[in-house]
Structures are given as C-alpha cells and as structure tokens.
Amino acid sequence: MSFFKKYFTKDKKEDLDKGLEKTKKSFFGQIAKAVAGKSTVDESFLDELEGILISSDVGLETTIKIIERLESKVADVKYFNTSELNEILKSVIVNILSENNTEDVEDFTYPEEHKPHIILVVGVNGVGKTTTIGKLTHQYVKKGKTVVLGAADTFRAAAVDQLKIWADRNNVDFYDKGMNADPAAVAYETVQHAINTKADLAIIDTAGRLHTKKHLMDELTKIRKSIDKKLEGAPHEVLLVLDATTGQNAIEQANKFTESTKVTALALTKLDGSAKGGVVLGISDQFKIPIKYIGVGEGIEHLQVFNKSSFVDSLFE
C-alpha cells in the first residue's frame, strides 16, 4: 500500500524527496538496516529501534509510544517479511501524526469566512520566520489573493528591511512604522490597513524573541490583544516557525511559545539541511498542534503544505 496522494505532483514529490535526503540516509536509513531480514519483533530489534528514534530527536515519550504501538500491532503475527514490517511502522507513525489534527491538504488554503484573514507569525531569530512569510505570501499571490505584510518586528532594522524586500518581490502591500515603534500598535494598524484596502489576508511578522526571555514572550499576549481589539476573533492563526536542524531545542522553543500564546499551527523549516527530520514526530506528538508547512529547500517554491502520508511515504522509500 502506498500513502502517496494523487494530487501530490511529481515536482513537489521530487522536492520533498530531496529535502528529506539527509534524514532518510541517517534516521530512516538506520531503521531500514534494523528492519532488514527481520521476521519477528524481538527484544534486540526493539532496543535498536529505541536507540535510533531517541538519537534522531524523536523524543523519549514519542519513542515509547511508537514502540508500544508496534508491539501491539505485531502481537498476533508470528512471522512477517521486511516489507510488511515497514508498512506496519509507517502506519504507526502516520497515526501519531494524525492525532494532532494535521490534515492531509492538497494546497495552500485558509478558511475564507474571515476577510481579512489574519496570520500572526512567531518564533526565535534565525529559524527562517521572515523567509517563510515571504514564501507563504508567494503561494497566496499565485492564487490571486491580496496580501498585506505587517512589520511588527521593530527591534531590528534588518527585519523590517527583509520583510519589505519580500513584499516588493511579491508585489503586495507593506505596512510598517519603522524602528522602535510599539509592535502591538503596528499589528493593530496593519489589520486596519488590511480592512481599509479590503485585503484577503494580513500576515504579521513579530520580533525573533528568545524563548528564554519572559518579558519578551509576554509581549506576544499584548500583540494578540491589540489585534483582537481591532478585529474581534483575530488573529485567526498563530503560526510558530521552528528550525528542524535544532532538534530538541525546537521542542523546547515550542514548549515556551505555547505557554505564552495560543499557537494554532506549526511550520518546520530547513528540513533539507537536517538529518533530524524525526523531530517532526516528537513535536507533532507532544504538542498536538497541526504541522501546516515544511521547508524543504531555499527556493521560493520550496515551502510545502505538510502532508503526513506523503511525508512518511517519502521517508520510507
């Protein structure tokens, strides 16, 4: 059985396969070797699998869950071949990814009952937050949507400039108040601008705050309240961007951000530069927040919607 979806085009599949190459060679390469030639799930195999999962930043709790479910699925099967064991493992992992409400969507979409649809983007410096905004904007512009980008990262001039470059590149509206402006005020006025111009979406960048600095994290609450004051119920989405190459540190970042604000979706960047794609499983399982996007390369087209079935299928190929 293949989990691969018909709508997942050849080009997207090739990008995904290439982006996951390092993870496939390390993490799932090790699993393939452990599975090879096995006809029973014995203690030595489970010990080996546990070591592979933990060393690949899947996390202890998720590792235990995978092993327990694997044991349960093969409990009544005395003998099986390598291919069958692979399929069992794949189904266990897909089920875990399903439990956080991650849907297998075919393209970049959003609920259109709100206009404008407000997306607040959060994350620490260096994870690819502003680049993800630019690539996401590109996808919506391709669909004919009008987008406003709001520069609420007012601590760094470079952040405002970088977002302006992406706005110009995508030929969309850009709203900023320069350096040292109140981020909550910028967010509020970006929403007002989007309403005035009848834009379909407003995507608001925030400062790449350190997740260990409580006073900076608390500011996210102020920004959210400011947006809601302008447009009740907004932001409609809070997207946390995480760098897959940081492994367990990405999980710690997710932990701190979910404590400080209501994160509704995740984007995992730089999967192409990491051999630790297993962190996707740990983050998905631990936080029960849908993974919405993955970055599988530097190109503007290399931000993909996360399709759990295709992701797992690619890893096991």
Estimate what percentage of residues fall within beta strands: 5-15%
- Note the total helix count: 12
Q: Strand order, biggest sheet? A: 3-2-4-1-5-6-7-8
* Proportion of helical residues: 40-55%
From the structure provided, what is the oligomeric state, counting identical versus distinct chains? single chain
Listing every helix as H and every strand as E from the N terminus to the C terminus, the arrangement reads: HHHHHEHEHEHEHEHEHEEH
Could you walk me through the main structural features you see in this protein, from its secondary elements to its overall organization?
The chain is an alpha/beta fold. Helix 5 runs antiparallel to helix 12. The model is unreliable at 1-7 (pLDDT under 50). Strands 3-2-4-1-5-6-7-8 form an eight-stranded mixed beta sheet, with helices on both faces. The longest helix is centred in the first third of the chain and has 17 residues, at 82-98. It has twelve helices and eight strands. It has helices at residues 10-19, 21-35, 43-55, 60-74, 82-98, 129-142, 157-170, 183-196, 214-230, 248-260, 279-287, 308-316, and strands at 117-122, 147-152, 173-175, 201-206, 237-243, 265-269, 291-295, 303-305.
Distinctive features:
single chain; about 325 residues; alpha/beta; eight-stranded mixed β-sheet; 12 helices; 8 strands; disordered N terminus
Quick structural overview:
This protein has 317 residues and is of the alpha/beta class.
Question: What is the topology?
Answer:
Layout: H1 10-19, H2 21-35, H3 43-55, H4 60-74, H5 82-98, E1 117-122, H6 129-142, E2 147-152, H7 157-170, E3 173-175, H8 183-196, E4 201-206, H9 214-230, E5 237-243, H10 248-260, E6 265-269, H11 279-287, E7 291-295, E8 303-305, H12 308-316
Parallel strand pairs: 1-4, 1-5, 2-3, 2-4, 5-6, 6-7
Antiparallel strand pairs: 7-8
Helix pairs in contact: 2-3, 3-4, 4-5, 4-11, 5-12, 6-7, 8-9, 10-11
